[in-house]
Design goal:
About 30% of the residues are buried. This protein is about 50% helix and about 20% strand. With about 260 residues, the protein is α+β, with helices and mostly antiparallel strands. It has 2 domains: about 160 residues, Phosphorylase Kinase, domain 1 (2-Layer Sandwich), CATH 3.30.200.20; about 100 residues, Transferase(Phosphotransferase) domain 1 (Transferase(Phosphotransferase), domain 1, Orthogonal Bundle).
Length: about 260
């Protein structure tokens, strides 16, 4: 009788496992169909190539969507969670918005002006900026791989659900997070030689009360001609948000000097 119960238990486990696998297959199929509805053939070939190589094991639903890109939840060869960011290649608005951040960047001196080439360059730019930020100790998604207009990063969140934005979930201890983010701005500037360029509560995640900066595609090197104005804008955005939470913020010019001065 005991043996029979054990066998029955094992069969139930196998049945549940089979049902889960089938469900996942159906979900993946639905997501692949959705990919085909949105992206052009070169993009699809890039994604399928990454799947065939095992760089991405599975790709699931959309985590976030904007005029420039879509981010999907995926898994890697070790079942680790991934964020798969796919840049849209057909947006003229996107093209116009890119140029001020690319022109003047010494890493991209000779660039083709067609939209697809610019988008591929934009993906490379974000990958390199993430590397610089991550290596300097700023909390950003770890970059994993980039190919054409597909960028693969560490997934920030749990169970396929992205961590909330700072705008969606303000910190419980705003003064502490304000100081942390100011330190990140300074580390970016002094160690990574970067200015975020669009820092706000909309591109900072609140992961268990720890800020994670993302969306660094537009970030520029400190020698970029617009770096100082971008830095002031980042500081103003932070001050505006945290002032709204009722904390005392620091003067912008004092902050600017603190970030940029030599130690």
């Amino acid at each position: 009788m005991e043996v029979s119960k054990k066998i029955e238990g094992r069969l139930q486990i196998k049945e549940r496992r089979f049902e889960t696998e089938q469900s996942n297959k159906e979900k993946r199929s639905e997501d692949y169909d959705a990919l085909e509805e949105v992206f052009d053939k070169p993009t699809l070939m890039t994604v399928y190539g990454l799947l065939n190589k095992g760089t991405i094991k599975n790709i699931y639903g959309v985590v976030s969507s904007g005029k420039e890109s879509r981010i999907y939840h995926g898994t890697g060869s070790q079942e680790e969670d991934l964020a798969v960011k796919i840049y849209l290649t057909g947006s003229a608005v996107f093209k116009r918005g890119m140029l001020p951040y690319i022109q003047g960047d010494p890493r991209f001196k000779s660039i083709k002006k067609d939209t697809r080439s610019l988008v591929y360059l934009w993906a490379q730019k974000e990958f390199k900026n993430l590397q610089r930020a991550h290596d300097s100790g700023v909390c950003v998604p770890k970059p994993i791989h980039v190919e054409k207009n597909v960028l693969i990063m560490e997934f920030i969140g749990e169970d396929g659900v992205a961590a909330p934005l700072l705008k969606e979930k303000p910190p419980k201890h705003p003064t502490k997070m304000y100081k942390t983010l100011l330190q990140y701005v300074k580390i970016l500037y002094k160690k990574a030689n970067l200015v975020h360029g669009d820092l706000s509560e909309y591109n900072i995640m609140n992961l268990h009360e720890k800020p994670v900066i993302f969306d660094v595609s537009q970030s520029v090197l400190t020698e970029h001609p617009n770096a100082e104005s971008f830095l002031r804008r980042d500081l103003e955005n932070l001050n505006h948000f945290f002032k709204g939470l009722g904390i005392k913020t620091r003067d912008i010019e004092l902050l600017f000097k603190w970030v940029t001065k030599d130690e």
